Amino acid sequence: MKTYEASAKTTEEAIDAGLAALGVSISDVTVQVIDEGSKGLFGLFGSRLAKVRLTVKETEDDPLSLLMTDKPAPKPEKKAARNPEAKSDKKAEQKAEAQPEAKSEKKAEEKSDAEKPARPPRQPKPRQPKAEKAEKQEKPEQPEQEKKPLPPKAPAKPIEKPVVTMIPAEEVVADSAAGKAQTFLKELTRLMGVDVDVAVGNDTEGNVFVQMTGDTLGILIGRRGETLDALQYLTSLKINRGQEGYTRITLDTENYRAKREDTLVRLANRMANRAVKTGRKVSLEPMNPYERRIIHSALQANEAVDTHSEGDEPNRHVVITLRK
Q1: What angle do CA 35, 26, 90 make, to 5 degrees?
Q2: What are the φ/ψ torsions at residue 232 (nearest 5 degrees)?
Q3: Which class is 165-253 in CATH?
Q4: How far apart are CA 220 and CA 189, in angstroms?
């Protein structure tokens, strides 16, 4: 029996070298791997060559071959299985074997799916017109609650304008309330540097009314009549000082009181309309008692709103609210 040992970097190269040295093919020998070898660390340190032993098979004419028939023949296939090429061939065979099975399973599934009754195609739902959708979305109309009529207001009391009788200048009594008011205002306007004529009069109740005329009356009126009201207040203090009864003093110039009354009536109606439109209360600017009384009187006949005063003097004002 002829043997040969060969060494190389890999097992395959060692087998090829042994076959070349013996001059035979792989089918004529049995291969025994003595050492598979090692590449070592990074292929530099501790590398070791692969080593194989090739044994030439005996022919049939060799009488010794009869003695070896009962012995199990070596299995070079296991050694050759370590070859990467042999591994890839085995994987390819397994894949090829698995493919027919997968195909058969797929065909069986397709067959079972074909046997199942086909589902009818889904029919699209008919689209409803937008108008119908809007009708569905609309909430059922609730019956409107009938509003109870509000009780009628008390009849409006118009502001009674007193009848005033003016007193001629030569007939004014100095010790009377009208005479004291005339004297006080002449001196006060002189100190203010305003040259005016002061005329006085009385109504049926003895209240004093003063009418001032001149060229610089704007100074006496002031912003929204504030100066005129201040002069009226000072005159009232002067006249009623030390008196048992109370005498009302009213100052006017250039018919300002009548014009102011018309302005306040228009303002009251305009603010009442705003309160009705917005549904909210409306507060007016602070006013003196006389002007607040004009606002209350102007809206007394309005059935949609009520009026009342809030705050303390001098910031007391009229508030307009909706009737409930």
Answers
A1: 80
A2: -65, -40
A3: alpha beta
A4: 9
In CATH terms, 258-322 corresponds, of 3.30.1370.50, 1.25.40.10, 3.30.450.40, 3.90.1640.30, to 3.30.1370.50
Whether the Cβ atoms of residue 17 and residue 6 lie closer than 8 Å to each other: yes
Residues sharing a CB contact under 8 Å with residue 140, sequence separation 6 or more, in sequence order: none
Sheet holding 317-322, edge to edge: 282-283, 317-322, 305-310
CA dist., res. 185 & res. 195, Å (int): 11
Query: Would you write out the chain's pLDDT as a tens digit for each of its 324 residues?
Result: 678 888 888 888 888 888 888 888 888 888 888 887 777 655 555 677 888 888 888 765 444 444 344 444 445 444 444 444 444 455 555 555 545 554 555 555 555 555 555 565 666 666 655 555 555 555 555 555 565 666 666 665 656 677 888 889 888 888 899 999 999 999 999 998 888 999 999 988 889 999 999 876 688 888 878 898 899 999 999 999 888 888 889 999 888 888 889 999 999 999 999 999 999 999 999 888 888 999 999 999 898 999 999 999 878 999 999 987
d(CA 255, CA 166) in angstroms, rounded, equals 15
Q: At what angle do helices 226-240 and 177-192 cross, to 10 degrees?
A: 130
